[in-house]
Amino acid sequence: MFSLDGYQAVQKQGGVVRRTDRRVLAVAGADRASWLQGLVTNDIASLADGDSRYAAYLTPQGRMISDMNVVAHGDRLLLDVPAPLAAALLEKLDGLIFSEDAQLTDESGRILVWTVINEELIDVVAQSLPARYKSLPEIDLDTFEVIRIERGVPRFMADMNEDTIPLEAGIEDRAISFTKGCYVGQEVIVRVTTRGGGRVARRLVRWHADDSASVVPMTGSRIFANDPSTPEGPQADPPSLRASKDIGRVTSSAFSPSLNKVVGLGYVHRDFVEPGTNITVVWNDARIQAVVK
After folding, report:
1. pTM score, two decimals?
2. Under 8 Å CB-to-CB from 214, ≥6 apart: which residues?
3. Stretch 59-71: mean pLDDT
């Protein structure tokens, strides 16, 4: 449950949240790094002990199967992955081990995931929270979700899913190495970035509603390029709305206490991603005016 006290404490001094929405898989064996290097988007072969790197695991068509933080931890690589996908990922990845010296295990429950909230959101994978962070206030996931949305950080299974190309979500700067060797889905990523100039059909944007908005829109609410007039009567799709340009959908939204307004994330057509673009968010008979940030 959202805690205003916890939220305000984090605004003042930072905080930590235990990521019970994440699980940890481990890869052991002499070939662990070279094997995983050929599967994920980022360069994990160069990780030094204790280092971590954010990456995505893609289909051959460049769509996301999952995101992950990869941590070099002694003689193992730890994979911080979405909790609902952990079992399926373990089975899928295990099926991709052939002659390589690599072994996969599920370390959930023994190794935990924490996010440290300061100027950045730093994920820590460890058996317990490191002592240097224990003095920070701990918040729950609902409170963290508001902070995440405020900062425009996408979450897999909310703002990214199996239909998402990493470039659409804007995570390429931290999730993709453009200098490493081959990985699954690389051909699509290279084709879009080199031949297509990085242009994708849609992009994830952060938006802020105007001060008159009093309701947080539902996930999946439609985003329009202009301001459709309020319909008369209980019409789901009035003529004025049908004449407007439907450009996208809301993926996450929340009320921001510090900004005192509704904020959110959503995918919009690539022609409407510039900061300052006015949009209208519509669900049922409700609508709010917003601006891309």
Report:
1. 0.91
2. none
3. 98
Interatomic CA distance for residues 83 and 24, integer angstroms:
8
Length of the chain: 293
| Half-sphere exposure (Cβ direction) of 114: Cα atoms closer than 13 Å | 21
Tokens of 137: 């206030």
Residue range 202-292 in CATH 3.40.50.1000: no
Q: How far apart are the first and last CA of the chain?
A: 27
Cα torsion angle, 125, 128, 130, 135, sign:
positive
Q: Give the pLDDT confidence score for residue 110 in this predicted structure.
A: 94
> How does residue 237 score in pLDDT terms, banded at 50, 70 and 90?
low
Contacts of 10 (CB under 8 A, 6+ apart): 117, 137, 139, 143, 147
Would you list the domain boundaries of the chain? 4-169, 202-292
Q: Which CATH class is domain 4-169?
A: alpha beta
235, pLDDT greater than 60: no
Indicate if the pLDDT at residue 161 is higher than 80. Answer: yes
Task: Give every CB contact of residue 33 below 8 A, 6+ residues apart in sequence.
Answer: 44, 45, 47, 77
**Distance between CA atoms of residues 10 and 76, nearest Å:** 33
265 has which bridge partners? Answer: 206, 252
